[in-house]
Q: What sequence folds into this?
């Protein structure tokens, strides 16, 4: 049985801990050993959670460790994950049993797919992607590393999110639209055309802000 260590002990980290105990394999393939966080006191106001074991850079992974990153900010997640990877840490993906994964879809390492999410057929989900509650990923969608799709957002069939993209709550990415690397789409937006890298868009139809 592996020891799962959650990187980040903030609000999302607490949610990921709770979520992980509901995933297939908990108590059989893995248990949660604790958290890594640069704030060693981050869980002090809370009860019922495993301890913060150490700061990220001060922990040396063991052969029995596996990791998942809870950080919502894609840049912060990338930095934290790479710090662990450089020390040889291995990441697993957590998929809630109520999530649906379509035929021939591929899920990378270190992904988190939460309750009631839907991933259609022939999708490619790269490493360290976060798909939140009730998000819909249509057929043939491609999502790059470290990207994040928030609750009840929809990526219509054939869309592509490059690396490090953030799609906020309730946004819709229309058929075959490409969202380039590090772009952000505001909550409730409807995106009908290509979003350029490192830009933010908002509205219906979504426009650069």
A:
């Amino acid at each position: 049985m592996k020891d799962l260590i959650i990187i980040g002990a903030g609000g999302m980290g607490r949610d990921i801990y709770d979520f992980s105990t509901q995933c297939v394999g908990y108590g059989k393939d893995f248990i949660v050993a604790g958290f890594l966080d640069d704030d060693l006191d981050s869980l002090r106001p809370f009860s019922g959670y495993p301890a913060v074991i150490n700061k990220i850079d001060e922990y040396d992974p063991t052969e029995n460790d596996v990791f998942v990153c809870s950080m919502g900010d894609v840049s912060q997640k990338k930095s934290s994950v790479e710090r662990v990877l450089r020390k040889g840490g291995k990441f697993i993906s957590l998929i809630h049993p109520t999530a649906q994964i379509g035929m021939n879809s591929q899920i990378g390492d270190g992904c988190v797919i939460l309750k009631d999410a839907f991933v259609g057929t022939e999708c490619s989900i790269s490493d360290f992607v976060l798909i939140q509650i009730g998000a819909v990923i249509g057929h043939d969608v491609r999502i790059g590393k470290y990207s994040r799709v928030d609750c009840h957002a929809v990526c219509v069939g054939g869309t592509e999110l490059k690396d490090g993209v953030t799609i906020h709550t309730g946004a819709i990415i229309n058929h075959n639209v490409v969202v380039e690397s590090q772009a952000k789409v505001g909550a409730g937006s409807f995106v009908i055309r290509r979003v350029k890298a490192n830009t933010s868009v908002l509205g219906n139809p979504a426009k650069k802000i």
Notes: The domain at 2-92 is CATH 3.40.50.20 (Rossmann fold). Helices lie at 11-20, 74-85. Residues 13 and 115 are 16 Å apart (CA to CA). The chain has a mean pLDDT of 97.
